[in-house]
Every structure is written in C-alpha cells, then in structure tokens.
Specification:
10% of the residues lie in helices and 37% in strands. It has 279 residues and is mainly beta. The protein has 2 domains: 2-139, Jelly Rolls (Sandwich); 142-277, Jelly Rolls (Sandwich), CATH 2.60.120. A 5-stranded antiparallel beta sheet has the order 1-8-3-6-12. A 5-stranded antiparallel beta sheet has the order 13-14-21-16-19, covered by helices on one side. A 3-stranded antiparallel beta sheet has the order 5-4-7, with no helix packed on it. A hairpin with a 2-residue loop joins strand 17 and strand 18.
C-alpha cells in the first residue's frame, strides 16, 4: 500500500499481529512512533512496525509525505491469526490511563546509536523490546544502505540478481521478521540479469531509475515508484534501460516463511540456457 499523510497529521497508537514496514518515498517528514522510539524518516529509510508493537503514523514538518507500506497480512490472515488493538494505555502515578499519544521512552536516534555499527553489539540494553518478535532495530537509514551499494557497485555481483543487499536483524544476522524480509537490489547502467525463478513471491518497487522486466515471457515496463509483483514460480529477468544511471529496487520476499518450512528453492539459467539449481 502507498500511504499519503497530510501535513502534521498524526494517528493514535495501535498494534496488530501482522508485521509491517514503512519505506520512505517522498518528503522528509514521514513519522512513525514505535514502542516509544519516535522516528522521522525520509526517502529510502525503512521503519519497522513489528508484530504486537505499539506504533502510530503521520507526518511532521508541515509538508505532505508518501511512504510504501508492506505487510505480511495475507499470510497472517490465511492462518486466522489477525488481531488489532486500539486501546493504548500507560501507567501514570500507578494507574493505567488510556492515551492518544505514546510517550517517548528512547532517543530518536536510538536504533542507529545501538545497532548502527555492524559487528558491534552493546550489552547494556534490552534487545527484546516490543515483545522481542523481530529485529530490535526499528529504523534502517538510507545513507547506510547507499554507502554499501556504492562500495560494491564495481563488483561482479550475481548474474541473476545484480547487487542485492539484505536488511537483517543485527542480533541474529537473520531476516528482520520471521515471515517476510526486505532488500535493496541494484542494476548497474545497462545491466540485464539472467533468468531465474524461485518459490518465494516477490514485490519490487523501483526507487530510482527505469527499465523493464520479463516475467514468464511477458515484458513489463516500469518507472520510479511503480510496483512489480512477481508470483512464486515465475521466471523473471530485469533490464536497466539506462546506459548511464543505475536502477535501485526496494524489494520484499516471503522467503523466510518458506525457508522455515524447508520449502524454499531457486533456479536459474546460464548464458547457454542450461537450467541451474541455485538454492
């Protein structure tokens, strides 16, 4: 879903069993408060709102902002495990009081200060906040991702995917959620990937650039902020239509669920057209 928030519009706190992310597209004032961490985010920043974590959404700074929302709702709904809660309370002077705004309990840069340096893990904080059901790093900043992409832009990459960087739970190295995960995929200027198919279903949102994809033999042209849905089992190739600028996709996959059930597989073809088992 695409969410447009009007200037300085803030909704009351709520929580639910589906896990979700917000990925900033336009505007610098997207806002999400998650379990007492107030996050203001802009284009390319990803914010988690995990299963059963209190959160609210909106915009600050006096301008409209748009973000992309991706949830595991279809899976949770299929499993008959959906629940929502809109009655947010806090303890005030020893009494439970219903409130319309979360009190900030963490610094606004908490996620980056605690988890922003790879390979380093502070011992003195609770890594299970918000129920401990997801990554405790609630915001992943674009400048960090962009730096990693830039550092690897001249590497060979994967002929079936180009350059792909996964978002991970810094405490485990695994996916940010147990059900779905997210990544950024870069195609260098003029790059065309070799065909591949996998059992997982994918959602791709072109964040920068334009080009086309061939899905089960049919061509689909796309531009910035379009949405590409790739059903599990479909053959797919991607083509960067520019000879000078990279394409950057924001991607979502339900591979974590399939891997937990030992169902995930991936195949590809080489330049000669031979079928390869990749995973």
């Amino acid at each position: 879903a695409y969410r447009l928030n009007y200037p300085d519009e803030i909704m009351p706190p709520h929580k639910h069993s589906p896990s979700a992310i917000r990925f900033g597209l336009t505007g610098k004032g997207n806002f999400t408060g998650v379990e007492g961490e107030d996050v203001v985010f802009g284009p390319g920043d990803m914010v988690l709102t995990p299963n059963d974590a209190w959160h609210n959404h909106g915009t600050v700074g006096g301008e409209q902002a748009v973000n992309l929302s991706v949830l595991d709702l279809p899976l949770v709904e299929t499993l008959h495990a959906v629940h929502f809660d809109h009655k947010y309370t806090e303890m005030v002077d020893g009494k439970e009081v219903e409130k319309k705004v979360q009190t900030a309990r963490y610094p606004s840069d908490y996620s980056q200060r605690i988890y922003g340096e790879g390979g380093l893990m502070p011992r003195f904080v609770d890594h299970k906040r918000g129920g401990g059901l997801s990554s405790p790093m609630y915001v992943y900043r674009w400048e960090k991702m962009e730096a990693v992409l830039d550092a690897h832009k001249d590497w060979d990459g994967d002929p079936h995917e180009g350059i792909v960087i996964d978002y991970v739970d810094p405490t485990t190295g695994g996916p940010v959620f147990h059900t779905i995960n997210f990544y950024v995929q870069m195609l260098r200027p003029g790059e065309k990937t070799l065909p591949q198919r996998e059992t997982a279903s994918l959602l791709l949102a072109p964040f920068r650039g334009n080009g086309h994809s061939i899905i089960d033999g049919k061509r689909y042209d796309w531009n910035q902020f379009d949405t590409i849905a790739i059903p599990g089992g479909s053959w797919v190739e991607h083509v960067n239509g520019s000879s000078s600028e990279p394409v950057i996709f924001f991607g979502a996959t339900d591979a974590p669920t399939q891997k937990a059930l030992l169902l995930y597989k991936r195949w590809g073809r080489n330049q000669a057209g031979d079928l390869l088992r990749l995973v």
